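INFO  loader      accepted 1 record
INFO  loader      residues=379
INFO  predictor   begin
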Amino acid sequence: MSRAPAMALEDRPVPDQVEGAAHPRETLALIGHGKAEAAFLDAFNTGRLHHGWLITGALGLGKATLAWKIARFLLATPEDDGGMFAPAAPDSLDVAPDHPVSRRVAALSEPRLFLLRRAWDDDKKKLKTVITVDEVRKLKSFFSLSAADGGRRVAIIDSADEMNPSAANALLKLLEEPPPQVTLILISHQPSRLLPTIRSRCRELRLSPLGAADMATALAATGEAPDDPTPLAELSGGSVGEAIRILHLDGLSLYAGIIALFETLPRLDRGRAMALSEIGAGRGNEARFDLVLMLIDLFLARLARAGSLGYAPPEAAKGEAALIARLSPNPQAARHWADLAQGLAVRARRGRAVNLDPAALLMDMVLRIDKMAGQLAPR
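INFO  predictor   done
INFO  writer      dumping tokens
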């Protein structure tokens, strides 16, 4: 029995790229994270360069872009040999795009750089779900083979959260006994999932969500130019990667539709509810269905937070502030919305696990939200 031909390398999906955006290694500018850049540069210039760096923050904030920027900097910056003609201390992590290292990194042909990420499974024709110990062994072999070349060597692990236990333990040994002149850069969206011993052997660079102004600048660099960046900054949690996903899936219009529907609570407009529930129906609509689930969950979280704090966040859709003030006027209402959000999230996960009809799942969520609004409505 003949095996199906392997998928061409250029046609395989990659696990470390947001759909619709350039790969982080091709993005030279990093917006809004000057403090993290300055912290690394200070460690480099003062001779306190740690062998392990853990870049943390929510998905899509620019962690991978920073990791690749650091890698280019380390590989392109001459080493200080202590002589009288030693280069001046650098004042930036920037490396010119036409520098040979920049070109090699963009082409994934830099011999002193190793990228550790989930591998492609030719048998199953999809990406593996975890980073396996075999991939970490390749990293160890890389360090052994490249040692003779001299100079700095860099490995990027994207993301460290995806390592299985065997892979994590193998990487831990490298962090405990690092080869000379090696810098390991770990990217983590959920550092709490990592082994405490891995976290303790790395210096952390924590990235914060972008505000509206930085979001506008970052999106402009990708070719996107929203009229108002505030809704995107609110819905994406300050994540450029998430903002791009929202834009490409028409998420701003979807959220405006959700707000318009919930403005009819507690006398739900069944016609609008049916229209919303049908968004996830049919093959090929999985991404929009996932986005609607996320936006509903986000709205409930914003309800709960506003009721607890006593004020609404910046509007992400017209009429949202008034709606939040009406539905969640006090901390007691906020607790009810928070409990409902948690319960709906559990139901959504279970529904997805058993392949429940997306339209039915969405309609059930909307009806439960309508019921809660009715219970909280002034009598």
